[in-house]
Amino acid sequence: MKIEAIDCYYLSMPNILDTGDGSQDALLIRVQAGEYVGWGECEAAPLVSIASLVCPMSHSACKPVRASLLDQELNDTADINRIGNLVRENSMDLLQTDHTQSGVDIAMWDLMGKKLDAPVYQLLGYKKSYPKTPYASLLFGDTPQETLEKALRVRADGYKAVKFGWGPFGRGTVAEDEDQLHAAREGLSQDGLLLVDVGTVWGDDVERASQRLKAFQETGVTWVEEPFVSGALDSYRTLASMGGDIKLAGGEGCHNYHMAQQMIDHAALGCVQIDAGRIGGISICKRVADYAHARGISYVNHTFTSHLALSASIQAYAGLEHDTLCEYPVESQSLGVDMTQNHIERDANGQIHLPEAPGLGIRPDLLALEKYLVDVEIKVHNQVIYRTPTLPATA
Amino acid sequence: MKIEAIDCYYLSMPNILDTGDGSQDALLIRVQAGEYVGWGECEAAPLVSIASLVCPMSHSACKPVRASLLDQELNDTADINRIGNLVRENSMDLLQTDHTQSGVDIAMWDLMGKKLDAPVYQLLGYKKSYPKTPYASLLFGDTPQETLEKALRVRADGYKAVKFGWGPFGRGTVAEDEDQLHAAREGLSQDGLLLVDVGTVWGDDVERASQRLKAFQETGVTWVEEPFVSGALDSYRTLASMGGDIKLAGGEGCHNYHMAQQMIDHAALGCVQIDAGRIGGISICKRVADYAHARGISYVNHTFTSHLALSASIQAYAGLEHDTLCEYPVESQSLGVDMTQNHIERDANGQIHLPEAPGLGIRPDLLALEKYLVDVEIKVHNQVIYRTPTLPATA
C-alpha cells in the first residue's frame, strides 16, 4: 500500500504563556495508507513545521518534507526506515525537517502496528515492555515556598521521583538556587528521588554551573539535566569530572542520531534523554537507545506534552529492563490531557505500562480537539498551499 | 538606536529545477535601526524561515525569531552578539532559527559597518583583508564528457582551482565515478587544483567512500568534501586515516558553533567549510574561524548563491593570510547575479578582494529583484501575520 495522505493539525491553548510549559500547543500528524491510519505529534512551533511540509522546493536537497512521503510504498517496518532516510536526504538543507519528520515517523509506526496487529515496541524487536517509574515533571515555583508546596503535593500524590526545572532556577544568585533546591528536597522528604532540569540557561559556562554543585550534592540530586546547550560537549565533560556522584543528563536538543551519539561519546552523560518528537521519531530513538545501552548509559524519554507523545517516546526503550525511569507530564495544560481518549495511568505500585493495543495504543480525541484547532492559511503566488483541514470524524 | 524593522523578501527563479543548484531562490533580510539599513541573506527554504520569524509563540523557549529582535538596542558590535544569544535562548526549541538568524546577523553586521564607517572584517578585528584564490564551484556534468567540457571552460576562463560536486557523483558505480574524476582532471590539466564535493550521498558509509580513494589519489584530488553527513564524526575520522594525502573537508551542514567545533575536534578534517547563511551569521563564522586557526585547520567559506552571501561568508577569515582558498559561484542562476548592483570580480592575478566600502560593501539591486519577488501570505485565525512587503526604493 502507498501513503495516500499526510494531514497536519495545529492545536493550541487560546492563550500562550511565556513560561517553560511545552504543553501549550502541538502539531498532530495523521498518516493514511490503504485502510490504515496512524497518528503522531511534533514538538513545538507548529506553523514552522507546517511550512516545512508544504513549502516550494529550493533545490534537490531542500524539498518540502511532504514530497518524500506521498505515494511512497509503506508495507513493513523497513519502509519506515527507508522513507525516513529519503526525507533526510531530500530535505537535508531544510533545518526544520527533523522536527517535522518526527511526527510523521511516529504516525507511520502507529499505522504499522495497526496493520501488523502489534504494539510498536514489539515491532521494534522487544519481547516485552517493562514497567517504568514515572517521575513527575514540574516547573520550579516562582518562590522556594511554591516549589515546596508543589513537591509536597506530588509526593502526597504518590510520586517517588520528581524533576524540577526552568522557572527562575539558574538565572539568579547561587543562594536563591540553594533555597529552591532545599525547598524541593524538603517537600519530597529524604527518600524521594530529586532530579533538576536547568534548561540550558548556563549556555556553556562551567563556572556558573559548578557554583551550584555543592547544593546539588547537599540536597542529594540524582541528576542535573541540561546545565548547558546540546553540543557543548567540553562543558558537560568538565562539569561531570567535578560533580562526584551527581550524574549529568541531556540530549533533548538533539535532532538526529549523530548528535545523540556525540553526546553519549563525548559529554560524559549518565543519562541520555531523547524526545521522539524532535529527534526524527521512534526510528531514531531506537537507534539511540541501542547505542546508549551498548555504552552502558541510561536512556530516558523527554516528554512534556500529551500521552500520544508519551507512548511514542517510551516505545524505543520499553524493553530495556534496567532503564526504569520515565518522564511523565503532570502539569499539562488541558490541551495535553484532552488530546487523547485514553491515558497511560499509574498502577497501584505507582508504575506505568505501555498499552498492549496495536500501534501506540493511544487514540486522539478528535471531538475534544475541535476547540483547540488553529485556522492557518498559507498562500504562495496567490495559490493556497496549506489550509487547516477539518478534523476527521474518527481516529 | 533600536531595531525598528525586520523585513524579509522571498526571491525565486520562476522554475525550480530538481538539481543541487542552491542559487535558485533566496531569502533577503533587511534590518533597519535609526537611519541605517543592513542587508543579509539566509540559505534555502525561504517560506520556512519566514514562518520562523513570525509564528505564534509555543512557550518561553520557542518564540518567533522576530520577538527577540524588534526594539533591541543596536549601538555597537557587542549588541550583535548579545542579540544573537537572545535569539538562540528564546527560540531554542524552534529548529529553523539558526538558518533564519543567519540572515539577520549578516544584516546587523552590514548595518554596523555603515554606522561605524568600516568594512565588516575590520569590525571583526582584522587589520587587513588578504586576497583569496577563488575556486570555481561547479556541478558535475551528467556525463564525463560534460564534466570535461566544464573543466576546460573554467580552466580557459583562468580558474586555477575547481570544485566539482553533486550531479551523478557517488550514486552509481565506482567505475562511473572514476570516469568522472579522470574527465575533471583531464579538463583542468595537471597543475589545476581539483576539489570534489560528494554532497553527503554516502550517509555515514565508510565502505562506499573508501572504494573511491584510489581514484581520488590517482587524479590528485586535494580535498574530498562531505563524503558523509555533518555529524558522522567517526566515519570522517576513519576515512581520513585511510586517505593518505587526501584531505577531508566538511562543515557546511553545521548550524551552530558547537557543531563546527565538534567537527574540528573529532572529524579529522583538513578544512572546515562554513556557510554564513546557515551557521548563525558572521558572528558564529568568526568564532569558528578563530577556533579552526588555533587548531591549525584551514577555514573556507561555503557559498553557492549571491555576492551578498559571498561577501558575508568571507569576512570571518578575511584576515587569515594562509587560508587562501575561497568558494566562488560561477554557475549561478540569474537571480544570484541580479541580486546585487556590484560584484566581487577577479583581478588580473585571478584573485578576489573583499570590498573596502563600509559594511559588506555589496548593494542589493532592488529594481532588478522585483521580478523574482514571491508573493506570500500567512494567516493564523484569519489574521494576516505575514505578507510579502514591497521592495524599498533604495538599498
How are the SSEs placed, and which strands pair?
Two copies of one chain form a homodimer.
Chain A: E1 3-12, E2 25-33, E3 36-42, H1 46-54, H2 77-90, H3 97-116, H4 120-123, E4 133-139, H5 144-156, E5 161-165, H6 174-188, E6 193-197, H7 206-210, H8 213-218, E7 221-225, H9 233-242, E8 247-250, H10 257-266, E9 271-274, H11 282-294, E10 298-301, H12 307-315, E11 325-329, H13 334-338, H14 366-369, E12 376-380, E13 383-387
Helix pairs in contact in A: 2-3, 5-6, 10-11
Written account of the structure:
The structure is a homodimer of 395-residue chains. An 8-stranded parallel sheet of chain A has the order 10-9-8-7-6-5-4-11. A 3-stranded antiparallel sheet of chain A has the order 1-2-3. In chain A, strands 12-13 form a two-stranded antiparallel ribbon. Chain A is built from 14 helices and 13 strands. Chain A is of the alpha/beta class and 395 residues long. The mean pLDDT of chain A is 96. Chain A is globular. The relative contact order of chain A is 0.15. Chain A folds into 2 domains: 141 residues, Enolase-like, N-terminal domain (Enolase-like, domain 1, 2-Layer Sandwich), CATH 3.30.390; 216 residues, Enolase-like C-terminal domain (TIM Barrel), CATH 3.20.20. In chain A, β4, α5 and β5 form a beta-alpha-beta unit. Chains A and B meet through α1, α2, α10 and β12 of A and α1, α2, α10 and β12 of B.
